[in-house]
Known about the structure:
nine-stranded mixed sheet, Immunoglobulin-like, alpha+beta, elongated
Amino acid sequence: MGFKRGGSSMLGQTRGQLTIFIIIAIVIVALVFGYLFLSGIISVQGIPPSIQPAYTSFLTCLEEDTLAGISVLESQGGYISAPEFEPGSTYMPFSSQLNFLGNSIPYWYYVSGNNIQKEQVPSRGDMENQLADFVEARIRGCNLRSYYDEGFLINMQEPEADVNIKDNEVDVSLSMTLSLEKENDTALVRNHKVSVNSQLGKLYDSAKTVYDEEQETLFLENYAVDTLRLYAPVDGVEVTCSPLIWNADDIFDDIQEAVEANTFAINTARDEYFNLDLPVDEEVRFLNSRNWPNSFEVAPAETSVLIASPVGNQPGIGVIGFCYVPYHFVYSIKYPVLVQVQSGEEIFQYPMAVVIQGNNPRESLNATAVSTADPELCLYRNTEVQIITKDIQGNPVDAEISYECFGNKCNIGETEGGELTDLFPQCVNGYVHAQAAGYKNARYLFSTVSEGSITVFLQKAYEKNIVLNVGGKPYDSNAIITFTSDDAASTVVYPEQRTVSLAEGQYEIQVHIYRNSSLNIGATTINKCLDVPRSGVLGIFGLTEERCFDIQVPSQLVSNALAGGGTQKYFVLESELINSDTMEIDAESLPVPNTIDQLQDNYLLFESKGLIIAFR
Length: 616
């Protein structure tokens, strides 16, 4: 009986069993994946029909949130979250945002309250990031309540959005695990995409083109200068013997009205002057409103009245032969302009500040947008000084404090309870200025090279009515009354103005009375001779020769001529100011001149005429 081994037969049987198990496992896995595939868990495109409406509503939410964010970007100059707010000042009226119909829009260009030029122009990338943040913050609030009522189970994980702004559309890709389940149907979607039709990108590019054009050419400022010179007295000469008088408030009203109308006319009017050759396809509008923050200043002007005095009517007029009034006023004007770029129903808008300094446009913004006019003195405040402000009786007075050194003035602060301790810039023989409502401005000499303290006394000012009499009778025609003290001067244009603010002190009071005149000064020719350097080598050694030339003086009609008044020095007591309501001034009349000689005589007589001052 032979021996027989059975090892190979058992091994083959075991291998067969393993193969069967592997096949069964593969089939099971395939069935599971097939089930998941058919139920929509693996394939987004395979979302079951029962779940598809809920997911479609989710995509609609994503599209609506995108459109809402685009609308905010377009209405707020490319911002959803505005940069940190920066207030303006009395010197520069702009804050960092313009309130337009209740919507705060960041300026793309403005000048800060401390006179620093600033830009806030967002890039496309900035807008994409802000829109992505906006979508992420809103998408989980998508209203799917009706599907919950139908028995849906919906779960959203943390979203992460990516935005691409193109010229005519905006693409949003949202990474967020979203599971939707109803009865036996389930879907799990991790990536969601929508594209919305919008010209945000194209409008932004055009808006940036308009902005760059303004920064390069300052066309808004140039229009403003033209408006200023058309509607306000800036500089010039008029042939007349009476002073020229303007009301600054009326001038500013005219300028504001003109700025508002002319700004809107830019790029919309048919007039060639207002048409800009801007390299953009969309409609561009420029808006301004007098209700927006603005600032209008003019110098020299102590009050709201601008006065230009004549030359040639003083003693010696016979030598000059005619009268003329030269004038030169310096304006600083600041106001905002809202730029709107529109295509169809979409409007992209942003504001810019327009700044005129000293009758001229501001300088173009440089690459670093730094200040060009902030006094260096004010940047280095390192000396602590105590300021105490009181009235003459020793009672505390709250006042605004500033410090002046070599023509530069720095705002320091305001006293509280009559005291202020703050840092001052160092200066030898500078001046502390104190200003308070109802008090005369005070100016004290004070050096700030070391710490110290100063008490400033403010004199109370009193508003007094003015009654002018000429020859003992009430006078209601044209007159100019000036009050000059050691540190201040004020002018009253009578009878339009009938009050003056005075404090105790010494004043020189002058009254100039003007009446209608028909004095006609004919055209004349005046021969003038001057010593001028000789030509050639002799002129190098300082030798001169006489040269004569003729000056043609045009004829002029003196419609208002000096016909009364006088000058008087008077010390005004506080008791007079306290116990009276009215300041009465009596002046003498002079004959209305009919010839040049009589006009010259009136100016000679004026110097000798006094005034009678009484408080009643």
